[in-house]
Amino acid sequence: MRALLIAMTMAAAVAPACSKSASTSAGPAVTAGATVGVVVEIAGSVTATRGGATRTLAAGSEVSGDDRIATGADGKVAIELAHNGARWSLEANKSGVVAESVAWGLPKVSGPKGTNEEDMTSAGRHAERSAADTSASTAVSAGSGSSAASDADRQRMLEAAQNDADREAAKSRLQQLQREKSDMEARVAAAKEAAAKGERVKGVKVSKECLDNPLAKGCGDTDGKVSDTAVDHAPGGNNGDAIAHDPKVKACLATGATIHLAVKCHAGACAVTRPIAGVDDKVAQCVRDAVAAIKGPDATFTVDVKN
Description:
The protein has seven helices and eleven strands. It is an alpha+beta fold. Mean pLDDT is about 75; it is low at about 10-25, about 120-145 and about 220-235.
């Protein structure tokens, strides 16, 4: 009998303790669907589920205490609670109910916000969270330092990326300028060679200006040949005037049209020595045939023909 009384007394003593351990943690009572916080930071896939309905969260989305927040493999989120100003954060592949988080039971935050929590989903951990209130309060301040450091790191990474992009752009521009310089040097060499060759051609004289600077305006064509303006008419002939006023040559052209010809006369026969720009093949052939019918002394020259 005495043993029975002792057992009943012990059971009565244990019951209050068990009831206390099962009670909810500190924090306001939860009203289903009532807004208790807002998403302040988010990345990747993050959802909230309440009453079997799931919605996708975005920056500024409102959440309630009975929402279960879940992050995807690329997701992370920070929610600022309205009643105490604390922030609850979840990293990738985590989930938890807002009102079951450590942040929910924290005292009102007066300084920087920054609690960080991952996967506090088990209802059986209410007592553990209550016991952790003091250490979690300290973590609020520590978390703010971590957040600031993270922001600084991101800023440094952004600046480094921008600097790298600027360097790459400058390197690319330098390479382009080097290629242009090399191309210009090659063009100058080719133009000088063409000018020297033209000097050796019978009846052709190249001006000193063009010999000194073959790429000066009027001294070189795009194909590297000596241009017509660099060629002096050989003395002793009126071939240019004859061709310019020849009715057969002019008849090949449309009214008001002008063509530029490079001509060489030798052994009494004249011929067009370069392709005729700006006309079709039929007109060009007509002009070549008309010039070939003109006789004149040996000479190499250029002439403009206008109808």
